[in-house]
Amino acid sequence: MSLQNAVECFLTDLQNANRSPQTIRSYHSDLRQMMSHCPTLLTDLTTDHLRAFFADHAHLKATTRARKQTSVASFLRWAHRQQLIADNPILRLDRIRPEETRITSPSRQQVNAILDQIPKTHLRDRLLFRLIFETGLRISEALSIHIEDIDLTLDDEHVTVVGKGQRQRTVLIDDPGLVTLLKRYLQKHHYRHGPLFRAHKNYRGGSLRYQSAQEKWAKYCEQAGIHCTLHELRHAHATELVNDGVSLATIRKRLGHKHIQTTLRYAQQSDDAADSEIRAWRRRQSRQ
Predict the structure, then answer these.
(1) 8-state DSSP, 208
(2) For the chain, is the Cβ count within 10 Å smaller at the N or the C terminus?
């Protein structure tokens, strides 16, 4: 079988397994790049071909190179299970280990300064970005919300989203200001069903695209003179929860993390918060 046909079958199997579109797009991009370094036939693929492919991307960040290696490794494991190759050439290469980096996040004051740049008449943008900040949703999750996913029961307002791995979870909308903004937005546009965040000038098109949302957020950040990515809004929410004493188990559920290690990486306590917690513990010990 040709390498290209094998990759197409692999991607089809991923779709049939209900893997997320974002994962499939990422695999497709990485494997297409790999094929430019490899022979036409899958059975002619060797470790040297893979080594050349990874060496060609040595200038990229370790996290990006590790992702590409994961894509190739997943494909070759699949090919070996399908008995398309007798030997898996990637097993002779060491795995790329991304360096541990401390995740930084903007303060609430900084986020509010950015949100203040959004005109009050632009309710869609004000709602979208505040929703991400106050709930910790991924941007892809927020853009996929439909009206039918929202429950505005008094004092129990929540939204149901589908996260990574097609895992569904319910997220409480606990900020009163966010609830008020959401109701104003729905009332203004008379939405009853369909996507919550819509494209086009009259907001009656299809779902707002990720690229469009990212461009708008970048513009507001530039106007505020503050560097902050959309994903850092999620970091900021997680960090606030940790620093306010919310348990990691609760944060993990709210953010939709599969593993607690991911929650630990996203939400790190500030030194002041950690010191305060230690002092409180010491005071309790001294009173015993």
Answers:
(1) P
(2) C
- Residue 96 — very low, low, confident or very high, per pLDDT cuts 50/70/90? confident
Rounded (5°) CA angle 164-162-112: 90
Q: Residue 276 is inside which H or E element, if any?
A: helix 271-287
Q: Do residues 196 and 90 lie in contact, with contact meaning Cβ atoms separated by under 8 Å?
A: no
Q: Position 222: which residue type?
A: E
Of 3.30.2380.10, 1.10.10.10, 2.70.50.60, 1.10.443.10, the CATH number of 108-273 is 1.10.443.10
Distance CA 247, CA 156 (A): 21
Please report which helix (H) or strand (E) contains residue 171, including its range.
Answer: strand 168-172
Domain ranges of the chain: 3-92, 108-273
* pLDDT 10s digits, 253-288: 999 988 887 787 765 555 666 666 677 777 777 776
How far, in whole angstroms, is CA 247 from its chain's centroid?
21
The string of DSSP letters for 78-138 reads HHHHTTS-SS-GGGGSPPP-PPP-PPP---HHHHHHHHTTS-TT-HHHHHHHHHHHHH---
- Please choose, from the candidates 99, 107, 138, the residue with its C-alpha nearest in 3D space to the C-alpha of residue 273: 107
Residues 65 and 96: beta-carbon distance below 8 Å: yes
Domain 3-92 has CATH 1.10.150.130: yes
Q: How far apart are CA 18 and CA 167, in angstroms?
A: 11
Q: Put the strands of the sheet holding 150-151 in their side by side order.
A: 150-151, 158-162, 168-172
d(CA 256, CA 274): 24
